[in-house]
Amino acid sequence: MIQQERLTEDISREIMQSIDAKGVGVMIEARHLCMMMRGVEKQNSVAGTSCMKGAFRDLPTRQEFLSLLKMRP
Questions:
Q1: What is the mean pLDDT of residues 14-29?
Q2: CA–CA separation, 9 vs 47, rounded Å?
Q3: Deepest in the core among 5, 59, 63, 67, taking most CB within 10 A?
Q4: pLDDT, averaged across the chain
Q5: In 10 A of CB 51, how many CB atoms?
Q6: Which value, to the nearest 10 degrees, does the dihedral of the CA atoms of residues 71, 3, 52, 67 take?
Q7: Distances (CA, A) of 20 to 23, 50, 53, 54, 65
Q8: Contacts with 48 (C-beta within 8 Å, 6 or more apart), sequence order
Q9: CB atoms < 10 A from the CB of 36, how many?
Q10: Predicted TM-score (pTM) of this structure
């Protein structure tokens, strides 16, 4: 899962730099074959990581972002 955390961080950093954003929030949910096929052996196991930068580190903005994610279909 360390690679997923690194990917989440890399994506958020690149977005911030590319568009000179005041803030960015990135959340990744992934199914890991290693968890599904060996070890844990849970077919629907999902690992989630998130990274908040800039304005998204402020509690109200962070809470709004996360609540919008919960509302998605």
A1: 95
A2: 15
A3: 5
A4: 85
A5: 20
A6: 10
A7: 9, 20, 12, 11, 19
A8: 27, 28, 29, 30
A9: 14
A10: 0.75
Q: Per the structure block, which two tokens stand in for 37?
A: 């096929």
Of 62, 46, 42, 45, residue with least CA distance to 54? 62
Structure-block tokens of residue 45: 């196991």
Residue identified by tokens 């809470």 is 63
- Per DSSP, 58 falls in state S
What's CA 23's distance to the chain center, in Å? Answer: 14
3-state SS track over 5-45: HHHHHHHHHHHHHHHCCCEEEEEEEECCHHHHHCCCCCCCC
> Which band of pLDDT confidence, cut at 50, 70 and 90, is reported for residue 46?
confident
